[in-house]
Specification:
mainly alpha, Non-ribosomal Peptide Synthetase Peptidyl Carrier Protein, Chain A, 3 helices, globular, phosphopantetheine binding, ACP, PP-bd_ACP, acyl binding, fatty acid biosynthesis
Length: 74
Amino acid sequence: MVFDAIAELLAEHNDCDASEITRDTTFAEMGVDSLDTVELVMKLEDKLDCEIELTAKVSTVGELVDFVEPLVQK
């Protein structure tokens, strides 16, 4: 669920297919900078109805999924 939401948002951002995005995809590969990351997190909060305070540096989709999943399950 979290992975799908992130992949969908990244696909929209990069005008690509979500199936091209894996847990190992880096944000650098996707052309996502720190400002884009903040925007992505805000959209994720709306989509997943949770509050995300990104306190760790994440560089891959999988790292973001692992960070966000416990917040969604609360």
